[in-house]
Amino acid sequence: MRQVLLAASLGLVVTLFGTPVAIRALVRQGYGQLIRDDGPTSHHTKRGTPTMGGAIIILGTLFGYFGSHALTWSQATVSGLLVLFLMTGLGLVGFLDDYIKVSKQRSLGLRAWAKLGGQMVVAVVFAILAMNFPDFPTDFTPASTEISFIRDTGLVLGPVLFVVWAYIMIAGTSNGVNLADGLDGLATGTSVMVFGSYVLMGIWQFNQNCALREATNKCYEVRDPLDLAVVAAAIMGACFGFLWWNASPAKIFMGDTGSLALGGALAGLAITTRTELLLILVGGLFVLIALSVILQVGFFKLTGRRVFRMAPLQHHFELVGWGEVTIVIRFWIIAGLLVALGLGVFYAEWVASVG
């Protein structure tokens, strides 16, 4: 538990005090946000705000994780390192996207095929490695080839289909967080709550882990649950510190560097904690925002009409007349309720399994 608190605290300190340093450095380099002309006109005042701040979140996470291990003289685990690899790898893809935007002064960075290709490479490497490295004596690997909800469901995909499934999850989640990153503090604040839920689930899974208890349906077959809680805590703390500067009016944006990294870490945690389908509830706000884009595009192609005034969903409410801060706070409330619902379902399944 001390390691979890250390990881969160170190991540918080790095981003809280490191972000203003990054802001000054990015301003000197002229790495400001480009604003799409077809977006809400209120966003034009944000033009030039430093972007690529997600690099600070990644740095804070890595410092929190490895610093907590150094201070407690504990070893890093394969599961924790794989999630951090996924986060950093997707963050690099996002960084390239952001760099192209600011260096070429255009609102579009990497081509869609290039971004998806980069996500695919990182996701496939993660998925292949996650099926290996069995632990002793439980023989658990970081990921299972079964689809999971709160535990493995028994629906076995096999190695090839698991890699495809992992890619779909990773690409979908990272792009979902990316779509939510349209208003000051929206994606960052939601991420704090979602990763906080994985801290709680990781600690609970550790206390009820099959490595410590008799292997029955009352325990969790997760390889490194406590270390995954440490990873989630480091990310949560880093997001907390970044939110201080990212809240309205934002002094810095996380950019694709941050949104792809956070989405990748979220998918990685869901895979390694065997809560893949539960992610739909816990990360429900990201799902709703992504679905709004899918619905808008699909309906327009079929009928030539729009469901929303603009997608993603948060921009629809901007055009309806809601203030930006009002939208963010109300979306945070929705995100919090969905996180609470997800945690409730997680705990209810445990109660049912021991009843």
Describe this structure in words.
The protein is an all-alpha fold and 355 residues long. The protein has one domain. It contains twelve helices and two strands. The protein has helices spanning 2-29, 54-72, 78-104, 112-130, 158-180, 186-207, 225-246, 255-272, 279-282, 284-303, 313-320, 324-354; strands at residues 146-148, 152-156. Strands 1-2 form a two-stranded antiparallel ribbon. A hairpin with a 3-residue loop joins strand 1 (146-148) and strand 2 (152-156). Helix 3 runs antiparallel to helix 8, helix 4 (112-130) packs across helix 5 and helix 5 (158-180) packs across helix 8. The longest helix is centred in the last third of the chain and has 31 residues, at 324-354. It is globular, with a radius of gyration of 20 Å. The two termini are 28 Å apart. 51% of the residues are buried. The mean pLDDT is 90.
Mean pLDDT: 90
Count of alpha/pi helices: 12
> pLDDT below 50 for ≥5 consecutive residues: which ranges?
none
Give a short account of the largest sheet: 2 strands, antiparallel
What strand line-up does the widest sheet have? Answer: 1-2
Compute the separation of the termini in Å.
28 Å
Overall geometry comes to globular
Q: Which H/E pattern describes the elements?
A: HHHHEEHHHHHHHH
- Spatial extent as radius of gyration: 20 Å
The overall number of domains is 1
Structural class: mainly alpha
What percent of residues are in strands? under 5%
Count of extended strands: 2
Helix content: 55-70%
